Amino acid sequence: AYRGFLELDSSAQLRIDGYQWLLDNGYAEEKVFESFTQVLADTESEQELVDGWRWLDSKGYAGAKESMYILAKKLVESGDPYHGYQALVSLGDYKNSKEIVKNLATARVALDLRGGKIQNEPASLDVVYSEAYGLLPVPIREWYIFYGWYASLDGKDIKIDSATKVNIWGNHTLYAKWLSLPMILVQGGTFQMGSISGDSDEKPVHSVTVGSFYMGTYEITQGIYEQVMGRNPSKFKGARLPVEQVSWYDAVAFANALSRRDGLQEVYTINGESVSCDWGKRGYRLPTEAEWEYAARGGSKSQGYMYSGSNMVGDVAWYWDNSGSKTHDTGSKNANELGLYDMSGNVREWCWDWKGDYSASAQTNPKGPTSGSYRVLRGGSWYYGYSRVRPAARNFNTSSFRYDDVGFRLVLPAD
User: Fold this and answer.
1) Has this prediction a pTM greater than 0.85?
2) How confident is the model at residue 78 (pLDDT cuts 50, 70, 90)?
3) Theoretical Cys-Cys bridge with 337: which of 149, 178, 298, 368, CB 3.0 to 4.6 Å?
4) Could you tell me the CATH number of the domain that includes residue 253?
């Protein structure tokens, strides 16, 4: 009866103490060991298995060491190197245990390029469980931007870089994530938002800090808009011209649609005229007003120009004096310090924010008021004079407003 109690008890240490008591009180070793090994055969706890075989080994049970090695190998191969290592150490195999575990933990990682190419590098690498992936190759693909490596095809898990610890046991695959929009990495930083010499809605000048993000190199063109949405609402037709006559609602709907096409997460939840943004999701979205102005000023590379990329408005902007009353191909003027085109002029660009008055207090990643009547437009357009294409200049309209000088560009989280 006592032996039966020991076999059913869930405490490993109490069970070992009980069997030790049986031995100390004259029970036959053969019967005690037979009963104990039967208990171990039904045990699922790795820690109890290690403790149990360790106790049997300490009692000189024949086959304990061999069983411990088999258990250690099984634990390591099944993704539990900690208990496998512990089992080896408990046998006194300090010298070889780490190397054995490392050898068993080494895996081959295949790199699924998803249409890309790697120059002069193999399309696979060897990694060790719980250690960093190390240097990962950067593939190339014509007309696409490489966004990173992911352990799942849908790219909804954590982006994997050289410092990421391997937490997948055994051979596995990393998938390249590609973006169909050319984008520029905008490193985060702090800047002075607004203008002391501008309009009243540009004041007061205040300190704003934004995080890093990717921003579209160009305004969204008619070519990609039509590919994704199946229509082209623009007045001025041309695949490389910026799409226009799009409302704020049209812009957020396009962002979600492009996220779906590129295998990213949909950032916006759209219910009629109600739109909410999940800032933690990895997908395309409109820039905040602060992100837009920071990027237009050149971000961390800003030279303090009057316009986005120059003090000479005609070098960087299509505006009233040179546009001929129409839009022009995106990227046909000079870029700003970050490599972004048409941040001054061509078409006005929707931002996420509702219209709001500035505050003198410093802010970090502001997203504007929680409600309002008008959304923010930035950058001026072919229709406006030179004073309206400055990085600080603001414009506003309703979310449903459409006009032939209104377009947008998108951003994407950097991490």
Assistant:
1) no
2) low
3) 298
4) 3.90.1580.10
